[in-house]
Every structure is written in C-alpha cells, then in structure tokens.
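Exercise 7 asks you to align residues with tokens for two separate proteins.
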Amino acid sequence: MFGISPLGWVHTLGSLPAIPAAFYMIARYGRIVPRSPAGAIYFVSMLIGATTVFLVAKQPISSGIGAVTIVVLLAGYGVGRMPGLGRAARYLETVLLSLTVFLLMVPTVSETLRRVPDGHPIVTDPKSPLLLGVMAGILVALVVGVSAQIVYLRRQGRRAAS
C-alpha cells in the first residue's frame, strides 16, 4: 500500500507519534517540553524516524535531513542540562526543538502529498506549485511559531522576575 516497504512502515509508524505529541505540547505549553511524558514520546518517535530514514530513503537529501534532525534533536534535549547557560538554555532548547518539528513536517507533508490517495497522489511533481506552496507555509509557520515562542518565554521571564 502507498508503495511503502515493511521497513518503510516501521519508519512511518515509529515516527508518527511525534506529530500529535509536538502539537499537544505546543498547544498546552507553547513549546516542546523535553522533560515531560509527551516530550519523552516525541524524543523516541523522532529518534526512530530520523535513524530509520537512512534505511528507507531513496533521495540523498533525506539522509541529510535525518542526520541534521538527529543532531538538532540531541542538542535540543541536551542544552537544558548544560551548566552556565542560564535562561539562554530555555530559548535555545525551544528554538532547536521547534526546528525538529519543522524537519519532521517537511518530509511528512511532502511524502503524504506524493503518495495519497494510493495510485493517484495529489502531487506527482516535486516542483508542483501546491507542494512548494505548502512547504513555504511550513517555513512561515516555523518563523512565526519560533517568534511567538520567544515572545512568550520573555514574558514568562519578566513575570518570574517581578
């Protein structure tokens, strides 16, 4: 189904829980919260998706995205534990983990549009205006989302200081 191999299904279904976990945390906390139950689900799911992409990807760019995702994910989960960063750690954590959501959504949306419905996908050309428009929309969501998260964190910091 959808031209996906058994290993491809492991990749897809293993990384799928990251999407609702990310959206839940963003809606609930305004950001990805690494040290939470949803944060643990997000981490494991992202790690499954990013590591298995090397086994299933047909495009060289996919392996690059997987490698970058792993590095940014580990940095995002580790930066909060680094001594000496103070409040900057929370900002860095937020930006890095928001970037992982972007790195998750780009191939997810692209692959979905290029495979669904089975046999007659919505998009057949990688340079399709629809696909490029959706990718631009995801990029705008990243920029606006990170900006909103930074503003939110600054306001929280000011309230805590007063």
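Second protein for Exercise 7:
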Amino acid sequence: MIRKPRAVLASALLLMCLLAVTSCSQIQEPAVTMTGVDFRGISIEGLAFNLLVDVENPNAFGADISDLEYRILLDNAEVATGLQKDTIVVPAESVVEVGIPFIIVWSGIDEGLKKLLDGEEHEWRLKGSVRLSKGAMSRVFRFSENGTFDAPEANDIEIDLDF
C-alpha cells in the first residue's frame, strides 16, 4: 500500500522532468545588438563609457537576463571588455536596452586614438554571452556581431568647451 503513493510521486517527478527538458529545447535564442556607446566621464583610471545593447527576447514568455559578458575587438585587437551582473527582466517578445559600463584605460590609449582618428576603414566585432532564466530553467547563449566603420580624421573633429 505504501508503494502506490511512491509510484505516483515518482511518475509525477518524471513527468515534470520531461516537461522541463522539452520546454528548454524550445527556447529561442535572445538577440543582442550593439546600438551605441554613451560617454559617462573621465576618471584617474581612464575614459568611462556605457556600451548600449538591445537584448531581444523572441520567446512567448518573459525571462530574466543576467551575466551579460562581452568583448569588443577593433581590427582583431581587444579594446574593451565588460560584465553586467544585474538581473534585467525582458518581457515576452520585446526588446530592452541595456547599458554595460566599461573603461578605456589611459595606458595605451594614444595608439587606440590614433587608429580611431586616422580616416581609414576599421573592422569591429562584439562577442559575448548572456544567461536567460525563467524560474528554475537557465541557459547561456553566445553571440557575435561584426561590421566596419570609417574613422574620422583628427583634423575633422572640433571640440568646443564652454565654461
């Protein structure tokens, strides 16, 4: 008589596990797209920015994203890395803009600025990963986006400081 409730409990647990596995396999990968960079300020460490990315949740359910980690490469040289550990809620079938702080340190900045102000075409790449969670389900997705841009020439830049 004791065996029946155990059998029912074991069957229920097995069914729950099967449902969890099949529902995880139908999760659509979130899309991460770089939309811009916001200048935050200058510190003794370097120049502070927020990398702005859109995170799209194509799934029919809302989910949490966390551990958004990235690397930015310019002409195959790593110029910035960042990690957004805060949990951000992304509603079903929607897009949320996320700002990820990073600093370009003073050491080596002169070479980077020369390259960014040389008037030439440069290749950029955004690589990283993001964790998508819904309840007990959690899955890490990798992303990569790349493109090119034409850098301005240093002579074309005008800075106006009003005090």
